[in-house]
Specification:
371 residues; 16 strands; eight-stranded parallel sheet; alpha/beta; eight-stranded mixed sheet; homodimer
Chain lengths: 371, 371
């Protein structure tokens, strides 16, 4: 059975391409849908804003009921804190280097901000504690535990030991978090990944209690697993891409086909080679992110047989079925990107629309803030 | 036989990671080496600045003897023209949309700028001519011909017909250009791609002469093919990545191992999973550009057995040989990226160094100017 394919949002006319377009109607619908689903489970939603890096879109999430936000870097935290967002968790094993330490400390000491960072080692805890030495603020940390993804995170059964070391170093341990990233492996992987998240956090909670620490936070997170891991003992989920949607989320069943708010508007610039047309969106506009279960580097929903087979920096080479009519030279097409997060990070701003009507140019405020 | 591997430039201490570092000593050496080689062939070097997007680095190329520069987008042309660079060729089949037309016209009319754009269709020529309607300036165009890469470019034997149409539309036809991008296919592909470039430009020149047009420019171009296609009738070559070097160029034999001027400085943030460490450079710092003939998403020359097996937005997962000693938590390592061009485009600025000594923060002036 072929995987579901995205529908592209309507493009406004007259765009200078390549251009990033985000439909705010679809964003608001996505924000509300997941917020309602997660609220119905009695769990908090702390969306990951690394997907869009936009203050305006983060505010839409908070207005829809998010309990706070998740970020991946100290730079993202700074941008969002400067915008007045008051509850920020850096879901990353932060290392308080000499360069990062004063930045972390400034966030921990910022009035009105509830701030926490992740860690997965005793050394990282000691380093964070050094960053806070002499401060009247106490840094909140959430321990990362692995849930069979094998990226970062300590063994969940050892969470109590790590928590005790962190407490002894002077940090406040709020609980544990995990990321079942293997839910992205293929469209069948989601349920097992969600079960792994729940299992890891259950084990971590028991280990923390054995160490005498009652976890306030047990945080699971990814868009594919969000609605499946939103059950006790999990207290919050950290979905991100759900807000924007992309080809990958649709293929995984984590976004409806009409839940894709993003398009890259591109112009057909060449048709010199047979059975192919070339658009002005290449690797610097679409990235080379290409999950194994979807073909090419993005799709063009209006031309369903067309595959973006190869990208160079500024060229997208699209092979099409010769039995179909391709777009004309100069025509602007809407590309559904494979993976919204790294794509949005290529653009300083996007064209915000509602059903093809332009609202304005909105900033990707934390673009490039990867550290 | 294993492919050659890059040596990383020395990193300065105290960097806030991830950070883009470019060693200017190595840049200058690379600039001079290729300039000398190409000059010895009696051919002009018109480097492609899409690799670095930096005014300062473009000036190093011009001071080393480049005849002008190549860009891939109108946006790059604007940035470089604003900086006073006086000879710019947009090696791309430019489509003069309503949004682009005034930008193209302004460049064509700019005093003191020798400006040309590529085209590969009669329709694009007509569209460019419309953009210039009523102008006293005449737009120079260079016809793109295909050299068996199959991306863009008309059949070389038809160049004369296209040239006549462009002339009749009021454009000034300067010659033809091609890009043997299949020289990147694998380390053995270079010689055939260079031969294809020479052949296509020879055929295009004959076709142009039959149409009564004497080509001033026959332009070939890529870093792997540059020194091989720099011979008559080719008049100029458009290498780009040679200036910076990367893992791909070294694997292809197009850069010496010590010709890699670029490193992404990254910190080891986790070692929680066995036989693996994680660095804070992921897909938003390294891209997912991964040629088939090199393993992983970048190498860490100081740890030769280590492979960056998987990247997520902010994580690089590095598998290492358990018989070797991995870096410590908190240690900063230098990553050699697979492909410099899309990587540099992720950063607003870079740390310019000479042998590990910091010169300053230099801007990636045309970052994100992909259209």
């Amino acid at each position: 059975m072929p995987l579901p394919q995205p529908i592209a949002p309507a493009l406004p006319g007259g765009l200078d391409t390549p251009a990033l377009v985000i439909d705010i109607d679809i964003v608001e619908r996505n924000a509300q849908r997941l917020a309602n689903q997660i609220a119905a489970c009695g769990v908090a939603l702390r969306p990951h804003v690394k997907t869009h890096k936009s203050i305006a879109l983060a505010r839409i999430q908070i207005e829809s009921g998010a309990s706070g936000i998740t970020v991946g870097t100290i730079g993202e935290a700074e941008v969002m804190a400067d915008a007045g967002i008051s509850d920020i968790f850096v879901a990353y094993p932060v290392w308080a280097s000499a360069a990062k330490a004063p930045r972390i400390r400034a966030l921990a000491e910022r009035p009105g901000l509830r701030f926490a960072v992740g860690l997965d080692s005793v050394d990282a805890a000691a380093q964070l504690a050094r960053a806070m030495a002499g401060s009247s603020a106490r840094l909140r940390v959430v321990l990362e535990v692995d849930s069979n993804y094998g990226r970062t995170g300590t063994n969940a059964a050892m969470a109590g030991d790590l928590a005790r070391a962190a407490q002894q170093a002077g940090l406040e341990v709020a609980g544990a978090f995990t990321h079942g990233g293997h839910g992205y492996a293929d469209p069948a992987a989601r349920d097992a990944a969600a079960a792994d998240e729940i299992e890891a956090l259950t084990v971590a909670a028991a280990s923390l209690r054995t160490a005498g620490i009652e976890p306030q936070v047990l945080s699971a997170g990814s868009s594919p697993t969000a609605t499946f891991s939103a059950r006790p003992p999990v207290t919050e989920v950290r979905a991100g891409t759900y807000l924007i949607g992309d080809r990958q989320q649709v293929a995984l069943g984590a976004s409806p086909p009409d839940g894709v708010a993003i398009a890259i508007a591109a112009t057909v610039v060449s048709e010199a080679v047979e059975h192919q047309f070339v658009i002005d969106a290449g690797a610097k506009s679409l990235t080379k992110d290409a999950p194994t279960y979807i073909a090419g580097f993005g799709s063009i929903p209006e031309f369903p047989g067309a595959v973006i087979e190869r990208v160079s920096d500024y060229h997208g080479q699209v092979r099409y079925d010769p039995a179909t009519v391709p777009p004309k030279l100069g025509q602007v097409v809407a590309v559904a990107p494979n993976h919204a997060c790294p794509v949005i990070d290529l653009y300083d701003s996007f064209v915000a629309t509602r059903s093809g009507t332009v609202l304005g140019r909105w900033q990707v405020d934390a673009r490039g803030r990867s550290g």
